[in-house]
Amino acid sequence: MPSATKTFQIATNITETYNAVNPEQPLLPGDPRYVDCAPWRGDEHIVNMIAQRIIRADAARPVQHLKQLLAGHRGCGKSTELLLLKDRLEQENFFVVYFDAALEVDMNDVDYADILLAMMRQLELQVRQSGLGLELDKARLDDLAMRLAKVTLEKEDRDIVENTLKSEFRVEPQIPFFAKMMAAVRGFITSGSTYKKQLRLEIQQRTAQFLEDLNDLIDKLQQQLRERGKKGLVIIIDSLDRIIPHTLDVKGVRTTHSAIYLEHADHLKAPHCHAIYTLPISICFNENLSKAYPDLPLMLPMIKVREENGRICADGLAAMRRVIVQRVRIESVFESKESIDKLCLASGGHVRDLMHLIRYACDYSAEKITPLAVDKAIRALVREYDRLVKDADLPRLVQVHREKRLPSDAEYAFLPYHLIVLEYQNGERWADLHPAVQETRKFRAAWEDEEKAIRQKPAAKAGRKTKR
Asked: Which of 246, 243, 233, 239 is nearest to 278 (CA)?
């Protein structure tokens, strides 16, 4: 992992500001832009809690391998927190394999087999590049590579396979044979190649064999780590929360999310090491999740900029303000300091949307970000969410906004996935619509209709009593 951005310069103009608020860039440990917002997310400090769980599980004899699920809205800051966790665990002398699943699999078409293959590829790659003199069982790796070559390249001679990888897939010749084959496998999986089905079928039909191979490699690696005075192996798989949901049955009950995390929970729990999986927030509403995983899933809530009663949360708003101040010299870039709070409140405490809002404001500005540019930026975000809100969801959205809670029914599950509903925590979990959703024309109309119906109910009752 690259070192943190120690030399980051505070933005002093529009161009620098635009680049300083890249919504897709997680912050590395030690980055001066980082703001610890844990106190305004809820009662739990996620990094500390997961680190302590792993440390304690690793101290047990025999070792209890923790399988931790971490959920949260997309763009809420999970990647930054997971990179902090990686750094914390490495300081505790663990060997950590962290990777971004979005770079390893096709988020629009993911199977549990893809995840296991990505895990195997990254394990070999990061062990080889660690500089610690660690080695995985070469014979077992080469045997697995040949099995994968047979089902994809349809070749059984290793020399022919190597020549094919070099000529057709431009794989680097100096890397080990297994790494060459896995580079091709990664290409098959991420590109939607017809080979993807063949690879999946191979893993699905021989899952037990594949997991035996994986665990044999991990067991021998764990032994090498202990011999070097290190603690155990931890695998962190980020960005699985971005898996695009697809229904797999006519009733819409079975989805790609439930297929991976519930139907194949045993396979995700099988590796003989500590593992942290991010997961889509929608699957958290499935009652079977807690049955499938012994360790309760953890949630990274939004930063609370308003209280449940709608009042501004001064401390949470100040934390979001610092997210901007750590990147931008306010007096040089913004015409009005009031614009900062307006943007923070419009984001609903969602860090990535705050970054988007500032970029939109830059788009509408020349020398400084004006209050008018801020208003235009907010309207642009409202238009984005307006496209996400379906007419069929409006009664549900009215209910969520009125009750400040998100029912656990399946038809509500995808609302937080699409950020239409945001979840908060201050002692108890509560939810509300994203501020941009609240400003959409279709929601305002639905809310007004509901309010009108409520006002008319007492009048209707009074009329019936008069007739009697």
From this structure: 239
Backbone angles phi, psi at 238, to 5 degrees: -95, 160
Looking at every residue in the chain, the average pLDDT score rounds to: 91
Place of tokens 């995390």: 261
Whole-structure pTM value:
0.90
C-alpha 232/C-alpha 229 separation (Å) is 10
β-strands 428-433, 421-426 pairing: antiparallel
Classify residue 433 as exposed, middle or buried by CB count within 10 Å of its CB (0-12, 13-18, 19+). Answer: buried
Residue 135 to residue 450: CA distance in whole angstroms: 65
Which helix (H) or strand (E) segment holds residue 209: the answer is helix 207-227
What residue spans define the domains of the chain? 43-300, 391-467
Could you report the per-residue pLDDT of 366-411, keeping only the tens digit for each? 999 999 999 999 999 999 999 999 999 999 999 999 999 998 887 8
CA distances from 341 to 124, 314, 318, 348 (A): 47, 10, 9, 11
- The whole-number pLDDT of residue 1 equals 47
Q: Dihedral, CA atoms, 260, 265, 271, 275, nearest 10 degrees? A: 80
pLDDT at res. 465: 52
pLDDT of 287 reads: 84
Positions of the chain with pLDDT under 50: 1-5, 466, 468
- For the chain, give the number of residues: 468
- Contacts of range 243-249, beta carbons closer than 8 Å, 24 or more positions apart: 243/107, 243/110, 243/280, 244/107, 244/108, 245/280, 245/282, 245/414, 245/417
Q: Is 126 exposed, middle or buried (0-12, 13-18, 19+ CB in 10 A)?
A: middle
